[in-house]
Amino acid sequence: MDHDELVLMRDVSIDFHLEGKSKVEIAKERALSRFQVARLLSTARELGIVRISIALPEESGADLGNRLAADLGVEVLISPSHSDAAQRRELLARTVARAVRDRVHEGMTVGMSWSRTIEAAARYIDRLAPCDIVQLVGAQPVQGSGDSLELIQRFKGLPGVNTWPIWAPLVVRDAATATGLREQEQIAEALAKADALDLAVVAIGGWSRPTSTVYPNLTESDLEAASAGATVGECSGRLFDADGREVRTPLDERVVAVTLDQLRRTPDVVACGFGAPSAPAIRAAVRGGFASTLVLDADCARALTS
């Protein structure tokens, strides 16, 4: 996309959003079709040229984000709120997508975990600067959603993007199986690439059946060990306590995924959190040093201030 086209997007957006001109009027004035105008306006939103804020007075994302950033010492982005939970997640996904697009530059190595929000965000990323994208977790199918392998295949279709998949489940039956998978050449290369990430995109989940994708698949001994370690959250299959320290359980030996230490060594980790129950885990991830940019929905953000 050249500079002239970007300038046209800006000018058309000003005509429509600030001057109140209709798409038909803009099309006539600029010798465009109405459909071209609609596409320019849509793309301007996707690229962040136009950013629309809609909130009740008490829901000012900027004010809330600034307070949290000062409290936590990290950058905080807050998505618009909505009464419907599905819409809130979709709005969070759009904000995650914009954060990723803004941060990816040519030649970067980007690690991509999986969650329902990250999966939704990928639908809004239709272009990236040429980069390597590394899958950070094995596949963990969730009813009604895709998985990390489907996600990485989506990025594979973007021009200039090279992908490093992990052809394995996230959680396997025993440690020997996980060791064998981690030693397979392609999977080993992907996990090794996670040692030198420029950017990682992860989700932080609370430690409960509804808020963690791995929780429902754990054994009783896993859950007992997690409880004994005072687990408050999960990130990419790795458990941690209120200070962001790893909670060691038998699960660690059966997971095929990035480690929290690898995330700590990553210069920028964009961590998304959805819903008030995830707030304690979000705070712990910041304390633990594996979340440097937070992208939150309003419910999670408000819970962090209480």
Automatic annotation (TrEMBL):
InterPro entries: NagB/RpiA_transferase-like (IPR037171), SorC_transcr_regulators (IPR051054), Sugar-bd_dom_put (IPR007324), WH-like_DNA-bd_sf (IPR036388). SUPFAM superfamilies: NagB/RpiA/CoA transferase-like. GO terms for molecular function: carbohydrate binding; DNA binding. Gene3D superfamilies: 3.40.50.1360, Winged helix-like DNA-binding domain superfamily/Winged helix DNA-binding domain (1.10.10.10). Coiled coil: none annotated. Pfam families: Sugar-bind. It comes from the Bacteria. Residues 62-304 form the Sugar-binding domain. Keywords: DNA-binding, Transcription, Transcription regulation. Belongs to the SorC transcriptional regulatory family. This is DNA-binding transcriptional regulator LsrR, DeoR family. The lineage of its organism: Bacteria, Bacillati, Actinomycetota, Actinomycetes, Micrococcales.
